[in-house]
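Memo to structure team: turn this sequence into structure tokens by end of day. - J.P.
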Amino acid sequence: MPEQHNSTITPVRWYWPDVTTERGANRAVLYGALSSSWQCIDSLLICMNLINESAIETIYDSIVPTMIFISAVIYAFLSYKLITKNSLKASIFILVMSTLIFVNNVIHYNGLDPTDIITTFEFAVVFVFSIHGVRGALKIHNNNKMKQTEQNSTRNYTDTTPHPWRRHFARYFDCHLVLILLLLIMYNFIDLNKVIYNYIHISGTREIFFDYIFLFVFSVGISTPLIAISIGITGSTPGKMLYGIKVLGPDKRPIGFVNALCRELTIIVKGVFFYIPLISSLYSLASYFELKKRGHCPWDTKYVIAQRPGSPSETLRNMIGFLIHTAMLLFLNYNYYQ
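Reply from structure team:
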């Protein structure tokens, strides 16, 4: 017996195009242009009938035919913009006009008059086609905007070679920036000094107990979600922007909040080991050699770390970032020992 192959053929939905596909979006735009073209032809026919049936003797007699003719020209222009430029504004304008005309026909609909039935059906079809025009133009507009965003996000980030020190300073820049913001907020709402001294009297040592507990709670509970949100949405953070770093997916897009949060938690465990003094430095050193050897860290195997190439302007940005970071550390040190 001959071998049979099961094949599924997706029918072309001419009445409701699937705009998730390029073909469907283009078909929807074509429907929108056809609705505008039909209204253009209809306006021209009405204009010709008015001229033929009424004697135009004064300028006032020509106002209505002139306005209808202008509307026909506008419809022709909108149809041209939609079919050639995929103009979203043109499609919306066509939809608004067809909606007004359709609603007007429904309001004045007389079910006993066959002409009214045909006219209402005609403008209902034009109305639906104009909806398709907006659907198609909106999808194409969003696709173009997404492509433009992708190009802008990676336009200057072409260097994928490892830059351990950039990444190190960028991470601690972000952590210290969030810590400063946290301290400023806390100083406005609670007596932070009272909380600190209570911890000192309870623990008996400021360096071992309070520093570690406060830093751990800060890093895991506050800075990690904030950094994950920034990386997930934009691919970068304030520190990474200064040092020219982006965390992107294989498709060169931001990785999303969930992936960014998992990445940050993995770094806390495998990269800095909960910020425990000395042990954290050993883990950071191991990550440094791993990055230099393999070209990526264990938490970045699924992602692309793109950086701005080295240049005098990039060196200047890094120096500015380092100076700002130094100022932040001085601020934290001053407030810590007050």
